[in-house]
DNA sequence: CCACGCCTTTACGTTAGCGTCAAACAACTG
DNA sequence: CAGTTGTTTGACGCTAACGTAAAGGCGTGG
């Protein structure tokens, strides 16, 4: 347990990940410059492993949710807090996040319901015309 | 039906709404400049009615969901499309929106679940230490 | 009358999140 | 060996969404 298997640690170039996720290499470098990912180097060239790729997925999901990179950075820190963190402080921050997300969930459900309503009204209009 | 009752058409100053929603008057003017709201004028002074206030609520909800003002503008248009719009085109746009929102809903639920998981792991660590 | 508070417009400043060259090096390919 | 492809680090550009003065109009109260 906790052993790293080097065989399964696939390597990705920056272009690989850019292609896979439909983003620019510039964006990826930008995320690194903001400390959201920290790929290894082979000389000067960036080498990404599964961990970096996983983080990228979280970053993009955060963006779809409308979060700033700053927010996403904080969010990633919660994942990192695996070891050697004050647990109280961690759960506190997690709970903060959850509150925000549940507010967002409520907003989202309201909005979805309203759109369904609009569609329904539109259809009724068609029928009665 | 469809009659407007002038008695219930309350009036708000820009400062009223700014205070109520905890935003700046600058922001409200900015939203107007982008065509998201269009208050009446008394001389040069903006006069807001319930309709504008309702729109503001939708705007702020859109922002909490991470949408750009451009997106929100399009969204508001769906509400306006009450009368005299191509119904097909309307429902089409509504459905587009709904797709995005449901993607967002899925992202959100995943994220919430992961955070619950993190909290659970943190607590287990406390117990076993 | 004059200060005070609230309103207006105009305009420049700021931060985030990249896009877009530019210049340079490394490896492969014909 | 020249050319293509992929990488790097700057550095400047750009849009969105306001913040922040600056300068002035309108009404009210002392």
From TrEMBL, chains A, B:
<protein>
    <submittedName>
        <fullName>MerR family transcriptional regulator</fullName>
    </submittedName>
</protein>
<feature type="coiled-coil region">
    <location>
        <begin position="91"/>
        <end position="125"/>
    </location>
</feature>
<dbReference type="InterPro" id="IPR047057">
    <property type="entry name" value="MerR_fam"/>
</dbReference>
<dbReference type="Pfam" id="PF09278">
    <property type="entry name" value="MerR-DNA-bind"/>
</dbReference>
<keyword id="KW-0804">Transcription</keyword>
<dbReference type="InterPro" id="IPR000551">
    <property type="entry name" value="MerR-type_HTH_dom"/>
</dbReference>
<keyword id="KW-0175">Coiled coil</keyword>
<dbReference type="GO" id="GO:0003700">
    <property type="term" value="F:DNA-binding transcription factor activity"/>
</dbReference>
<keyword id="KW-0238">DNA-binding</keyword>
<dbReference type="GO" id="GO:0003677">
    <property type="term" value="F:DNA binding"/>
</dbReference>
<keyword id="KW-0805">Transcription regulation</keyword>
<dbReference type="Pfam" id="PF00376">
    <property type="entry name" value="MerR"/>
</dbReference>
<feature type="domain" description="HTH merR-type">
    <location>
        <begin position="11"/>
        <end position="78"/>
    </location>
</feature>
<dbReference type="InterPro" id="IPR015358">
    <property type="entry name" value="Tscrpt_reg_MerR_DNA-bd"/>
</dbReference>
<dbReference type="InterPro" id="IPR009061">
    <property type="entry name" value="DNA-bd_dom_put_sf"/>
</dbReference>
């Amino acid at each position: 347990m906790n052993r790293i298997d080097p065989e399964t640690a696939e390597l990705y170039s920056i272009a690989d990940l850019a292609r896979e996720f439909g983003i620019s290499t510039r964006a990826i470098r930008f995320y690194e410059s903001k400390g959201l990912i920290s790929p290894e180097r082979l000389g000067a060239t960036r080498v990404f492993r599964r961990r970096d790729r996983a983080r990228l997925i979280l970053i993009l999901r955060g963006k779809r949710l409308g979060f700033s990179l700053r927010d996403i950075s904080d969010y990633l820190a919660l994942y990192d807090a695996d070891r050697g963190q004050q647990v109280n402080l961690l759960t506190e921050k997690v709970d903060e996040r959850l509150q925000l997300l549940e507010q967002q969930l409520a907003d989202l459900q309201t909005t979805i319901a309203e759109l369904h309503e609009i569609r329904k009204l539109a259809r009724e209009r068609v029928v009665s015309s």
